[in-house]
Amino acid sequence: MGNEFIINGKNTFPGCLNISFPYVEGEGLLMKLKDYALSSGSACTSASLEPSYVLRALGRSDDLAHSSIRFGFGRFSTETDVINLAKKTASAVNNLREMSPLYEMAKSGIDLSSIKWTA
């Protein structure tokens, strides 16, 4: 089916990590991880619901841009903090995907780009 997550960017700032989680809406994931200081999209568009132009410039689709979360780590972040956040993120992503009809369709082999969606 493809990647379970996609790291956005190469040679990035060491304290910042941007990851897209296909078939998961970034805003929904933020709500599941509300105890952490995270944002959706890129720093340039974190206050907007528009897809990040930075992620689009990296070749990401609007869907992947909307499924991205920006993780920031500081000098007081510990290895335990990162491990706990990774576990909670994986759990939240799995939970959201369980509720996603698009994820189920993709899992069953349906090419979502071939579907003609109507409004």
CATH fourth-tier homologous superfamily? Aspartate Aminotransferase, domain 1
Q: Termini, distance in Å?
A: 26 Å
> What CATH architecture label applies?
Alpha-Beta Complex
How are the strands of the biggest sheet laid out side by side?
A: 1-2-4-3
Largest sheet: 4 strands, antiparallel
Structural class: alpha+beta
**CA-atom Rg in angstroms:** 15 Å
Q: Would you report the number of β strands? A: 4
Structural notes for this entry:
The longest helix is centred in the last third of the chain and has 20 residues, at 79-98. The chain has 119 residues and is α+β, with helices and mostly antiparallel strands. It has one domain: Aspartate Aminotransferase, domain 1, CATH 3.90.1150.10. It is globular and about 50 Å long. The protein has helices at residues 26-32, 53-57, 62-66, 79-98, 101-107; strands spanning 6-7, 16-20, 38-40, 68-72. Helix content is 37%, strand content 13%. A hairpin with an 8-residue loop joins strand 1 (6-7) and strand 2 (16-20). The chain has a 4-stranded antiparallel beta sheet.
List its salient traits.
PyrdxlP-dep_Trfase, 37% helix, Aspartate Aminotransferase, domain 1, PyrdxlP-dep_Trfase_small, 4-stranded antiparallel sheet, cysteine desulfurase activity, 119 residues, alpha+beta, globular, NFS1
Map the helices and strands.
Elements: E1 6-7, E2 16-20, H1 26-32, E3 38-40, H2 53-57, H3 62-66, E4 68-72, H4 79-98, H5 101-107
Antiparallel strand pairs: 1-2, 2-4, 3-4
Give a quick rundown of the structure.
It comes from Hepatospora eriocheir. This protein is of the alpha+beta class and 119 residues long. The chain has helices at residues 26-32, 53-57, 62-66, 79-98, 101-107; strands spanning 6-7, 16-20, 38-40, 68-72.
